[in-house]
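Ticket #4471: structure output looks truncated?

Reporter: J.K.
Steps to reproduce: submitted the chain below (171 residues) through the standard prediction queue, then opened the result file.
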Amino acid sequence: LLQEVTEPWIEAVREIDGYSLALSSPRIDNFGLAILHRDGDSEGDQDGGQDEDSDGQRLRIELGDPWIEEVELGTTTLPMAVQPLTVDDKKVAILSVHTLPPAGGRMARNRNEQLQWVADWAVRTRETGVRPVVVGDLNITPFSPHFRRLLRSGELENSQRGFGYHATWGA
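Returned output as attached by the reporter:
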């Protein structure tokens, strides 16, 4: 899952050996998205879509067809990418999100509206028997009440739990 994707990025990632561009929504601002699939990682491909977990156990991974959700926030519409997959018969949907930075009252309200949309998406997804996973640049700290609301209302788990705080910017 790639974020902040522009047309020049799309041209560059098309040249990466071993990967295929599954979906792209390039933009001239910082909110373009793309999804790459490692060649051979979908059902019926050469290696059968298998990978190993951290214990060395073989996992069966089947990739579904990704799509873009367009979310209207006031006068702005932002894309969010969804990648469905099945891991050992467990259905998962990964939502790639890049929220607006809270630079000023209007943008902060729009960011919070976007976070609520994400929480609602997680609940709707779980209700269909699919496990939601949210990744991306949320433009928020884990100390924010808006982040805690996202976790609570979306019934999501904080991936930092048990691992401590780590910088994410500049990674």
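Triage note (M.O.): checked the attachment and the full token line is present. The two ends are 15 Å apart (CA to CA).
Status: closed, working as intended.
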